[in-house]
């Protein structure tokens, strides 16, 4: 667990972060979101002490990070940035091996770990181990950056707008890849973004900051979208917030109407699809009804009323 207790950071007379208090539970993805200049990156980098707080306490599992050797602290935390920062004259394998090598791992253990991580991020070791960063696409470089951050198997992963410079299609693919990895690894991840769609897509909880690092709301995405805590939150979420919320809810969780012998709608949607997908299907259908199926089995019928009820 990472705990911020009234943490502030000042640069001269300017408050970058003002008395921030929040807890990041172990195994969660917490997203720090907000407009440019609101203290997201400052808050993130105070965790691994790239930036030292002016006041307050940041602790990891109850231990004040200020009491820890800074080099030991940083090696125990994975760190991924937007520009990736791969060493250009080192191979992919050498880049991923950076922290294990500093930690004194044996050559055989490092080789095995590099291959394991390349497989994990979807880059076949035989094809990628000896490549240089210049030979990779932007998405591939980001995957290598994630693999390098996981090199020594840290419990905590800090990610500072890691997909910000990637084109939209690849960006969504990498977001899905991160969620897949999290299901396997169960890391504690703090992720910075200014993109609210990205925040609600990947975050278990979202901390929305305003200027001066003021915490406006800290909640699960579906709760924030349904119940914004302030006018600032409402404005930042934008007019499409309820549509975003539909994207977080599953069809199987809605109240389905049983057909009772009546003809089933020809338009269908999967039970694991989002209510946003169901709404699209309802709007396409001839009679405003859609058949819900789970692996071929009919579970019922969903319509506009069911969607509205489930989204309240």
What does this structure look like?
By secondary structure, this protein is an alpha/beta fold. It folds into 2 domains: 2-246, P-loop containing nucleotide triphosphate hydrolases (Rossmann fold); 251-310, CBS-domain. The protein contains 14 helices and 13 strands. It has helices at residues 40-47, 70-75, 92-96, 98-102, 107-120, 125-128, 138-149, 168-185, 196-202, 221-226, 231-237, 241-246, 275-284, 304-310; strands at 2-11, 14-24, 29-33, 55-60, 63-64, 77-81, 156-160, 188-193, 205-210, 214-219, 268-270, 289-294, 297-303. The strands form 3 sheets. A 6-stranded mixed sheet has the order 6-7-8-3-9-10, sandwiched between helices. A hairpin with a 3-residue loop joins strand 9 and strand 10 (214-219). Helix 5 (107-120) crosses helix 7. It is globular. The model has no long low-confidence stretch (mean pLDDT 88).
Number of domains: 2
**CATH homologous superfamily name of the largest domain?**
P-loop containing nucleotide triphosphate hydrolases
Q: What is the overall shape?
A: globular
Strand order of the largest sheet: 6-7-8-3-9-10
Portion of residues within helices: 25-40%
Q: Report the CATH architecture of the largest domain.
A: 3-Layer(aba) Sandwich
- Secondary structure class reads alpha/beta
Number of helices: 14
Query: What integer is the average pLDDT?
Result: 88
Number of distinct beta strands: 13
Distance between the termini: 32 Å
Cα gyration radius (Å): 22 Å
The largest sheet, given as strand count, sense and whether it forms a barrel, is: 6 strands, mixed
Q: Could you list the spans in which at least 5 consecutive residues all have pLDDT below 50?
A: none
CATH class of the largest domain: Alpha Beta
